[in-house]
Design goal:
The chain is α+β, with helices and mostly antiparallel strands. The chain has three helices and seven strands, in the order E-H-H-E-E-E-E-E-E-H. It is globular.
Length: 145
């Protein structure tokens, strides 16, 4: 049995605005990461830092198709795939998957954690793009060591 993390949301912004919100580090730092050494572009390897952690996370195997999809690895075992679909002239559906892993108790814990994490990513993206609200700000300060 294969385990795949998935999450989806509809954002009331054009596909171009949502795509830019995902690939542009100047926007991503408003709702998701605190630092990036570049834009998500095909072939680009990046380092992301999150506000609540000291570590930097390598982002590899980046493949983007403008206004359509973004994929990358930040875990050597799994691929993150983000697909954008225009719902109407003013909305975009974002479908995100990460996977897959063979079933095991550890991988089931991964599935639960990452599904929640990616749902949070999408909620933060929606809140920021639609309303300028930074949901992540201060939300995970308790996780700092």
């Amino acid at each position: 049995m294969q385990l795949t993390s998935s999450a989806s949301i509809q954002i009331q912004k054009s596909i171009e605005e949502v795509y830019e919100g995902i690939v542009n580090p100047e926007i991503m730092t408003k709702y998701f990461i605190s630092e990036s050494n570049g834009r998500l572009e095909t072939g680009q390897d990046l380092l992301w830092k999150f506000p609540e952690f000291d570590e930097r996370f390598p982002i590899t195997e980046v493949v983007v198709v403008e206004n359509t999809s973004v994929s990358f690895k930040w875990d050597p075992d799994t691929q993150v795939q983000i697909h954008l679909e225009a719902y109407n002239s003013t909305s975009t559906v974002v479908n995100l998957t990460e996977g897959s892993k063979e079933y095991s108790p550890d991988n089931l814990a991964w599935l639960i954690s990452n599904t929640g994490g990616w749902s949070n990513f999408l909620a933060c993206l929606k809140a920021y793009l639609e309303y300028g609200v930074q949901l992540r700000k201060g939300a995970y300060d308790f996780m700092r060591k």
